[in-house]
Amino acid sequence: MKMNQDNLTKLEFNKILSQVSECAYSEGGKEQSLLLKPSSDLDTVQRLLKETEEAMELLRYGEPSFLSFVKIPNRHLQKARVAGLLTSFELLDIYHLLRASRLMVKYVGERSANVLKPYVSEIEENSELEKRIQSVVDEDGGIQNDASLELKHIRSQIETTRLRIKDYLQNFIRSGNNQNLLQDALVTERAGRYVVPVKQEYRNDVKGIVHDESASGATVFIEPLPVVEHNNKIRTLQIEEKREVERILRELSMEVSVFAEELQQNMEILLRMDLIFARSHMAFNMNAFKPDINAKGIIDLQRAKHPLLGDKAVPINVSLGKNFDVLVITGPNTGGKTVVLKTIGLLSLMAMSGLFIPAREKSKIAVFSNIFVDIGDEQSIEQSLSTFSSHMNNIIHILHEVNERSLVLMDELGAGTDPAEGAALARAILEKMKARNARVVVTTHQSELKTFAYQNQRVENACVEFDPRTLSPTYELTIGTPGQSNAFEIATRLGLDTHTVKRARELVPEREMEIGNMIRQLKESRYTFEQSNKELEEEKVEIKSERERLEIEKIAFYSEKEQVLKKAQREADQYVRQVKKEANEAIEEFKELIKQKEKPPKWHEIEQKRKKLKDIDRHALLEEETFPVQHLKPGDYVRIKDISQKGYVLKGPNTQGELVVQVGIMKLTVKQEQCVLAESTEDKKTRTRNQTYLQKAREISAELDLRGQWSDDAIIELDKYLEDANLVGLTSVRIIHGKGTGALRAAVRNYLNKHRYVKEFRDGQREEGGYGVTVITLK
């Protein structure tokens, strides 16, 4: 959009650009910010705002602070193109540009950014050149020792030679013979060569080259002859160092020249991205929001603030272009009318430049082809003819250019001349602009313009409110009613006598008085309506609050119910775990009783433990009957109390508390309270195993008598006996096979040789039965 710079300045758009510039990272980005211009193309404006929106999202993950090191390297690239030699500092700028290019691709590419990604996709990365420069130039712009093997070798020689010189000179100044000759016991440099300060009277006593003299002439700086050769060597090595550095820099300069066009393109993209991020930073700082853009000339700002007034800004609600195209604002001086004009104009310029605006979300801004401004000094008490002429010249220019895509902002229209003529002229101007379908906002003191809105369609009155009680403006804009003159009320409050005020009222023309009364009545009606509406809104807020409170209580009730049920379930689970624990303890006690070797098991103690286990089991079953099981879920194995059938839960519980239970081939729908968790097949097997164990533990003997049996039958019975003995935990048993022919004894011992439970076996002692008994120790 080609807009008059004077109009931008009157709306203080340059101050907004300064704030954007402060948000940019690089110097180039700051320069780009100051050149920002509004656009009159709808698609362009929407794209700019989308850029700002995406940049704000990216900033939530982290800032692209690497842009701070980017400098505009135009001169460096131009020098490289003509085969010039780039300095190490210029190469460092190229390195920062390459690094920022790579990091920008990574920064944007890792996140969703539909508008910004195409920009960074055009960046040409060159990691090899970046690493090459980094390996040569350090972060302070110096050339690193490892830039090349030759440079490293040369600098190593220089350092070694310097150390030798310093060592010699340190010994020289420490020598007792030389202490009287020296002005100070230190080594210094003159013209890049190491020297010692010698007193003037002893200059001939120190053989060497004089390089300098002190200002007083009392000291001469002499390079002793033994170090002259070493200093000469350093000078020669420094020349070689300079030549090697130039060679390295020339190689890098040639590489930069090959990549110069890509670097130029990268720089332009980075500066563009810096400007976009500056706009997004501005939105964060200003607490601004993205407006809805249209090309229909519709403005609808809600709680909009002038961005340069900070906390002092009073929010305004203003609309234009939907129900009316011309807005006539009236009100007292210092009432904020000009601020309203500037707020409308400045927020429009910001939105058209891709900047978010300090107004509520979904506020509407139109894209105009031009914005015309005629704002003077609204604080001026006297306006001269030259001021009126200046305003008229500006308005004449506006009338030549204005069209249906124009926004016109005029302050104090019709002022500076005869009131009647000024009002007539203002009316004629507004009629012409209205005929051009322009969007117009005008402030005025002319009473005649208050009736203009009532007599013309698409024209509306507005006023900046004034509080006569405090004699100060409220700065609030009210659309739909004209401003009311408060001169008489203010005069009375300031102390003007009642008679004079009354006489002044009588002198007001009857038509003006009627209009004033009409405005007063309208304001009173509006006030009554607003008060009623305010009370209604308060009641709505109270009802909403009460509803939210009830909802919270409802949620708390159900939450408490859920907690009670969970607590009951936890107690049931805890009880079952306790029962299992006691059962396991009883079983372990059985094992300990049976394993006793010193004395035979006390079967009455075993019987007591068995009875205790039965009591535990019976108590658990009773608890299953009496304790209501809650939160049954699909997969649980349950027993239906009424029909004493068991099955698995398939579905539920539903809202009526019903479950679908698979019982055999049937599916039954039953109430949840009719079901209790039952013992599954696996649990039953476990319990059966426990019962078998108890039975065997009570009946098994520590010896087995096989006498009189055939060998095969005896081995079968022996195998079963060893299984049971291992199950109940016996550690030693006796097998009675008799002496006889020895065949049964041999068969038993042959079988025991490879048995998995047998640790060892032996013949019985004389008191145990001798060779007729085999004593077995079990594993």
List key phrases describing it.
779 residues, alpha/beta, six-stranded mixed sheet, five-stranded antiparallel sheet, 22 helices, 23 strands, flat
Report on this structure.
The protein is α/β, with parallel strands linked by helices and 779 residues long. It is 52% helix and 16% strand. The protein contains 22 helices and 23 strands. The strands form six sheets. Strands 10-11-12-8-13-14 form a six-stranded mixed beta sheet, sandwiched between helices. It has a five-stranded antiparallel beta sheet with strand order 18-17-16-15-19, with no helix packed on it. Strand 1 and strand 2 form a beta hairpin. The radius of gyration is 51 Å and the shape is flat. The two termini are 100 Å apart.
Quantity of strands, as a count: 23
As residue ranges, the low-confidence spans are 378-385, 597-601, 623-627
Globally, the shape reads flat
State the helical fraction: 40-55%
* Neighbour order of strands in the largest sheet: 10-11-12-8-13-14
Measured distance between first and last alpha carbons: 100 Å
Q: What's the total helix number?
A: 22
Q: What is the strand content? A: 15-25%
Q: What is the C-alpha radius of gyration, as a whole number of Å?
A: 51 Å
Averaging pLDDT over every residue, what do you get? 82
Structural class: alpha/beta
Largest sheet: 6 strands, mixed
